[in-house]
Structures are given as C-alpha cells and as structure tokens.
Design goal:
By secondary structure, the protein is α/β, with parallel strands linked by helices. Helices cover 29% and strands 26% of the residues.
Length: 555
C-alpha cells in the first residue's frame, strides 16, 4: 500500500498532464506545469529562509509537530493553491486562517499554531500589523497584492510575486515524507479553534482523493494516480464556492487534482455573490459545484431558479460541512432536472465519512447517509461499535486513517481519539443511530444539543424543521436556561426580504417534522444570522441572542 505525500501527489499529476489547465480565476489560466513551477519557487524561498522539518514524526507524540508552520491568511485565488502546495514541498505545514478574524482572534490563532511564516493578502495587512509584535516566532511575512497595490508592504515583509520571480522553478532539495503534516483548524463556532494534525498519507486517502469518491479501495500508487489524472484531463471543472480556508474546499481542490480536473474560482472572492458564481460556472462549463449547507446553498439555488444562466454543463451540486435542507434539494433538481445533489458528511477530525445522493424524480431527504468503509457508530459509553438495527443513540465514529491529534493539547487528543477494543477512533461529537439496513441517521453535534426536561434535542434537527417554511431565509437554534425545563429551545430566524411570517406559523411548520417537545419555546426574529464565512452557524452568538445578551433590531 502506497503512502502518499501531498506535494508528490500534485507533482505526479503535473508531470502527467502539464499542459492541462489547473486553476482558472478571472483572467488567469494557469496550467499544471505553471502551478507546479510557481509552487516550487515559493518552496525554494521558504527553504532559503531556513523553514522546514525539524523533528521527524517518529520522535513525536500525536499532539506534537516537528515542522515549521505557515499561516494562509488569504481569500480564494491561485496564490492560496500555490502557497499550500509550495509549503508542502518545503516540508513546512500550512494551516488555514479565518480572514474575518479581528486582531484578538488572529493573535490567538497565530500564537496557538506557533506560526513561523504567513502568506497574507494586502487587504489584511492592517490587522496583521496589530498583532505581529506580540508574536516573536513569526519571522517570515509574504504579502500578496489583492487590492491593486493600494497597501504598501509591512515592514520586513516581501512581495509574493517578487520572491517567486527571484527563486528557482526547480524542485527544492528536500525529501518529503508521508508523515508530513496536514493541519486544519476548526472553525471555533462552539469553542476556541483547534489545530487538527493529520499525516498527509492519511488525509489524502481519508478525504482528498486517495480513495476515489464512492469507492472503497485506495489508489494503488503514484502510477495509478497518474493514470487517473490522464484519463480525461481537464474534463471535470470544479468550483469550490466556500473559502479555501474551509476543509471541504481544500478537500474538493485535491479531489479535482487527483482526477486531472480544473479548479475554477468565481470572480468575487470577498463575499458570496450567487449571480457571479453561476455566471462563472456557465462561462467555464463547470461540472461540479461545491457548497456548504443552507447558508450558501439557498442563495445559489434561488439564483438557479431565476434561469438567467446556462448551466447545461452542471451535473453535480456537492454539499458538505453543513446540512442542506431537503426542500432546497428538491427545488434545485426541479430547476435543473439533470442535476444530482451529493451530500458528503465529514469533519476536520474524521475526513470524509458518509454520503447521500439525491436525483430528480425521487423525494430528497436530509439526515440519512451511506457510511464509508471505516465509518461506524460507537455506543454512548464508548465501549463497543453498535451493530445495525440496535435501537440506541451513539456516537458517529471513524477508524482506520484518522488524525494524530490536536496541536499542543494532549488531553483533548485523548478525549476525541479514544481507543476502543484496541482500535483508535476519531469521535468529534456527533450523535447518530445505525439502522438495520446499515444506513446511518445523523442527529447532530453533541456540543449544541439542548437538554430540555430530561430529553436531548439536537439543534440541527430543529433548524431543519423550521427551514421548510418558504418564508424562512435562515435559522439557527440554541438553548437557554429555563427554571421549568433546565434548558429550553430558542429559534433565531431571518425572514426572506418582502415576506412575513408569525412565530405560530413557524411552529406549525416545525410540528410537521419533529415531536412537539422539541418545538422552540420562543422564536426571535433577526435581520441577519451570524455565520462564519464558510456558512457554519455561530452557536456562541446564537446563545447570546437567546439569553438576550446580543442587542439587535428585529427582522
């Protein structure tokens, strides 16, 4: 069994199909050979600055890193792709940065990650400038011009294009390893962000193409990878709508590369503009579009329904990272009868786990999935794996290729990656059941579960029941203290512009889908719902709203 390295994965594909377009963004059309050379140039610069691997993996615990870390503080663009791959080539571990963070949040993240270097957009320079003096380990600053030259270089920083021009396009004199790290920081919407450490060999198989989508077998080796990429180079054009700082987009990116596909980026990468996304998809003949949940899926589907874009090439809407309401799936397939909706369930701590395929002519569903070969449900006490058909709520679990741990946190590593029956599992906190037919019912994240009157109520389940109402644009559910129930359910709702709905009407819709004891005790209307740039709900904000600690106008 071949153990893959992500730098070598990309170079293998680039060698096999050098002239195929790799990244298309605005007026930039870069081939695999060009991206390979540009990432080599960055890698050589990092090596020249003394960055790389300092301690090999076999000398470290699961929560420890022996490599230098590089922050990717960028919006989507070819530079994100090049910096990610270039860091891997230098044996530097890149990690994702939420570019919406304020200075205090950015300082926490860069400090927690022990960042030695950062590639950042010039539009974020002022925020970085606020924190750099408190981060003595941050010694390499590389600035990408993303605002047309309006922002001068920070003191001590170098311009991205200048260092590429001055560096060699040849591969760096570095021998990479399957043990090299892939680092993915969690979103921090229910707690502080945590850096998940993966061996590159494990994440590539677990989520990034090393096990082809829908398959059970791993790629046999680099020769098989080259063959896969060469079968129909450039035939599959994929667009990842969410920011590349989201794991789903990074995984989609490498799945596209594994298949020799072309990664297409929408013109406007600073906000979600559905018209721009679909205009780009139509212009480039995008085949597969990646979205995240209702927050991104709903405006895209509404734009599809307007029928102003030629989307005859679009065959698959891939949804990952958050639940997409079944009503929205039905609407998408009604507007584009040849469209399939492919739900992919996974987490930063597990990789890809489960899938569900919806096609036109059959009523779509949300919440039930076919598990992958290493996905199971562990019992509530974490003593064994549940058998299909056991009438018990357990924990969604992954075994086999799982992460090493959380950066710098041995206790959380032990808790999230327990050993059951001599086997190491990843159990990040989702509740689930396994039916007699082997299908898994996903109930929701335990950290946002509401214990009301002794009953566990899953926030996502209540959200989906309310989202069925046509007047609801967005919804998030949280718990708040209750003298009678211990905790009670509160729904925060954003209504479609120009529409009205009452709380009683929303509760009547919700009652069609869930038991009465799960219904919200109050509905709070807001003009907008606070979410991360990737579309995930910010449950800390929702709890503040539920208890009246977040002032706002009502919607």
């Amino acid at each position: 069994m071949t153990e893959f390295n992500l730098a070598q994965v990309f170079t293998t594909v680039a060698t096999a199909i050098p002239d195929t377009e790799c990244v298309v963004w605005r007026d930039r059309r870069l081939t695999y050979a060009q991206v390979d050379a540009r990432s080599n140039r960055l890698a050589n610069y990092l090596v020249d600055r003394g960055l790389g691997c300092r301690v090999e993996r076999d000398g470290l615990a699961g929560h420890e890193s022996g490599q230098d870390h590089l922050a990717l503080y960028l919006t989507n663009g070819n530079e994100y792709v090049e910096a990610m791959i270039g860091a891997y080539k230098a044996r530097v571990a890149p990690f994702n940065v939420n570019y919406r963070y304020v200075a205090e949040e950015l300082r926490y993240l860069l400090d927690n990650a022990n960042a030695a270097a950062v590639v950042y957009g010039s539009s974020f320079a002022s925020t970085l400038a606020e924190v750099r003096d408190s981060l003595p380990g941050l010694r390499v600053l590389i600035q990408v011009d993303d605002d047309g030259g309006a922002t001068p270089l920070l003191d001590g920083a170098v311009a991205y294009e200048d260092i590429l021009e001055a560096s060699s396009p040849e591969p760096p004199a570095v021998t990479t390893s399957p043990d090299d790290l892939y680092i993915l920081y969690t979103g921090g919407t229910t707690g502080m962000p945590k850096g998940v450490l993966w061996r590159q060999a494990d994440i590539y198989v677990g989520a990034m193409g090393g096990r082809p989508i829908g398959g059970t077998s791993e790629l046999a080796g680099y020769e098989a990878l080259a063959t896969s990429a060469s079968n129909a180079p450039g035939a599959v054009k994929m667009m990842c709508v969410p920011p590349f700082m989201h794991g789903a987009s990074q995984w989609g990116m490498f799945n596209a590369f594994t298949g020799g596909g072309t990664l297409v980026i929408q013109d406007d990468v600073t906000r979600l503009d559905p018209a721009d996304v679909l205009a780009t998809a139509a212009r480039e003949g995008v085949v597969s579009l990646l979205s995240v949940g209702d927050a991104i899926g709903r405006p895209l589907i509404e734009e599809i329904e307007r029928g102003t874009h030629d989307l005859s090439s679009l065959l698959v809407l891939v949804n990952g990272g958050a639940v997409l309401n079944s009503t929205l799936k039905d609407r998408a397939m009604a507007a584009l009868p040849t469209l399939m909706v492919y739900d992919a369930v996974g987490a930063s701590e597990t990789g890809a786990q489960m899938t569900h395929l919806s096609t036109a002519g059959a009523a779509a569903s949300s919440g039930t999935f076919q598990p992958g070969p290493d996905t199971v449900v562990a019992d509530a006490e974490l003593t064994r794996v549940l058998e299909p058909g056991e009438d018990a709520t357990g924990w969604l679990a992954q075994r086999g290729r799982v992460p090493l741990g959380y950066l710098g946190d041995a206790d959380k590593t032990a808790k999230t990656f327990p050993v059951i029956g001599g086997v190491r599992f990843a159990i990040p906190g989702d509740r689930a059941r396994i039916r007699a037919d082997g299908v898994i019912e996903l109930l929701g994240r335990d950290s946002v579960t509401i214990n009301s009157g002794g009953e566990k109520i899953f926030a996502e389940e209540v959200e989906q029941s309310i989202a069925h109402h046509p007047a609801v644009y967005d919804v998030v559910v949280a718990g708040r203290p209750s003298e009678r129930w211990g905790s009670e359910v509160v729904a925060i709702v954003q209504v479609h512009e120009g529409m009205t709905v009452t709380a009683d009407e929303l509760l009547a819709e919700s009652e069609k889908h869930i038991a009465r004891y799960k219904l919200p005790k109050e509905v709070i209307f807001r003009s907008s719902i606070q979410r991360s740039p990737t579309g995930k709900a910010d449950y800390r904000w929702a709890r503040d709203v539920a208890v009246g600690e977040s002032p706002e106008t009502t919607g």
